[in-house]
Design a protein that fits this description.
Layout: H1 2-16, H2 56-65, E1 68-70, H3 75-92, E2 99-112, E3 116-127, E4 132-143, E5 152-156, H4 166-178, E6 183-187, H5 199-216, E7 223-234, E8 241-251, E9 256-267, E10 271-280, E11 292-293
Antiparallel strand pairs: 1-2, 2-3, 3-4, 4-5, 6-7, 6-11, 7-8, 8-9, 9-10
Helix pairs in contact: 3-5
């Protein structure tokens, strides 16, 4: 009798087998080892390059996260936090002081009547030249309406603004103010290399690109600078060093590479001032192939 029971159970197990289980990754399990300026790719956030399809789950996720408490690793919080990076560069950036978003710790968003949306953020910002990182509080307001303007930003980063770069900036200014040959450089070059002496001008290109990215940013964009295609020193009759610059921006949501031409000045007392900015059509752009100094 017992033998029959054993055989019956064995046959039953063979027929039913183990239940099939499909495990989906949690939305907050994003890979945080990626570059701090990149957007972590989760199942909800993933898009396949070259396809028209947009996952419904991603749209639903963003709609949920756009108001109230935000997931720090998702698009809405990181978009607002990147705007803080651009704001700090436009206010305090220089050839020897360049700010970059390091991490987003927390965020909250709320609608402000019919005028826009306000984000409250706790973030870490890194000054990349001195490798100094500080936790900062920030507020970003994205206006809405027919005359939608640039984001309005307030940020409190006390220690980063105490970094003293006067000696380095003074030496660079004197070198190129007195130099008889004007600078022309492509950063990086066609081999992806930047000479150490050219790094301050790559930093300057990154600073002026923040003027464009701050102006163009909204709740549906996420910009990074891709390249300083060229930067050219121009003659000037005043105390400012004057430059013409062609930069390439990467809009990470649309995956577009966007070309801009800027005219700007710099000196240690006055900082960076952008005089003109113009978006270039693809027919107006040619990528550099080398570095030339003359």
């Amino acid at each position: 009798m017992s033998l029959r029971i054993v055989v019956f159970l064995a046959v039953l197990t063979g027929v039913t087998g183990s239940p099939r289980v499909t495990v989906r990754p949690k939305a907050d399990s994003a890979d945080m080892t990626a570059h701090p300026n990149s957007v972590p790719e989760t199942l909800e956030d993933k898009k396949i390059f070259g396809q028209q399809e947009v996952l419904v789950e991603e749209e639903a996720e963003e709609a949920v996260m756009a108001t109230g408490e935000l997931n720090p690793s998702h698009y809405p919080a990181r978009r607002a936090a990147k705007v803080v990076q651009h704001y700090l560069n436009t206010r305090y950036g220089s050839p020897y002081r360049l700010f970059e978003l390091h991490d987003v710790h927390s965020g909250n968003a709320e609608d402000v009547a019919d005028t826009g949306r306000k984000y409250q953020l706790e973030i870490s910002v890194q000054e990349i030249i001195s490798n100094t990182t500080e936790k900062c509080s920030a507020e970003v307001f994205f206006p809405r309406g027919e005359q939608q303007g640039s984001p309005e930003v307030q940020a409190k980063c006390v220690d980063l603004l105490k970094i003293n770069t006067k000696a380095e900036e003074g030496a660079l200014y004197q070198q190129y103010k007195m130099n008889q040959s004007l600078l022309l450089a492509h950063l990086p070059d066609s081999y992806g290399h930047i000479e150490p002496g050219m790094e301050p001008f790559w930093h300057l290109g990154a600073v002026v690109s923040s003027f464009v990215m701050l102006k163009e940013s909204n709740e549906n964009t996420l910009y990074n600078m891709a390249q300083v295609a060229n930067i050219t020193q121009l003659e000037t009759e005043n105390d400012q060093l004057k430059f013409d610059c062609h930069i390439l921006l990467h809009e990470m949501v649309s995956q577009e590479i966007i070309h801009w031409k800027l005219l700007f000045t710099w000196s240690p007392p006055e900082g960076v001032k952008v005089l003109q900015m113009e978006q270039l059509l693809h027919t107006q752009t040619e990528l550099p192939i080398s570095i030339t100094l003359f």
